[in-house]
Amino acid sequence: MVVECVGVERMRKKVLVVEDDFLVRLIVCHYLESMGWQVTEVESGRAALELFVDGVDAVDAVLTDLLLPDMNGVDLARRAQTKCPFIFMSGAAVPLKELPGPVLYKPFDEASLRAMLTDVMAGVDALAEPSPS
User: For 68-93, how does the pLDDT look when each residue is reduced to its tens digit (9 = 90+)?
Assistant: First the structure.
């Protein structure tokens, strides 16, 4: 099953947060909700994959920890079979060449998260717009 990205016309966007550290997840979800995002949160890659298999409501973006206990964020992105953008969160220096999305290094603040989401969603919106004839 492929979970499609939601149309750009919807006002309140949905994000899936995948983070094993409870406090980090709590803060990230708080930031996102204060920005007007509708948040679904899980603590493992396996739980995230179950949402996709079960037909999770379409999401606009996935924000995932790069190093989860049960799988890494790159494996999650590949196995999720979604066209939605992934943003990877990491507290460690990682090689950037093979990541299928941008990295937000921990610790980060709400402004950094907002800027990253704005950039990522602007790219999605540009791809969704019909090309001029």
Answer: 999 999 999 999 888 889 999 998 87
The type of residue at 113 is L
Position 97 in a domain: yes
Any idea what the CATH number is for the domain that residue 92 is in? 3.40.50.2300
Number of domains in the chain: 1
Of 16-20, 40-44, 83-87, give the lowest mean pLDDT range. 83-87
Separation between Cα atoms, residue 51 and residue 117, nearest integer Å = 22
* CA 43 – CA 129 distance, rounded (Å): 34
Tell me, yes or no, whether 38 lies in a domain.
yes
Q: Is residue 51 part of a domain?
A: yes
SS (HEC) of 13-37: CEEEEECCCHHHHHHHHHHHHHCCC
* Cα distance between residue 102 and residue 13, in whole Å: 19
Has residue 123 been placed in a domain? yes
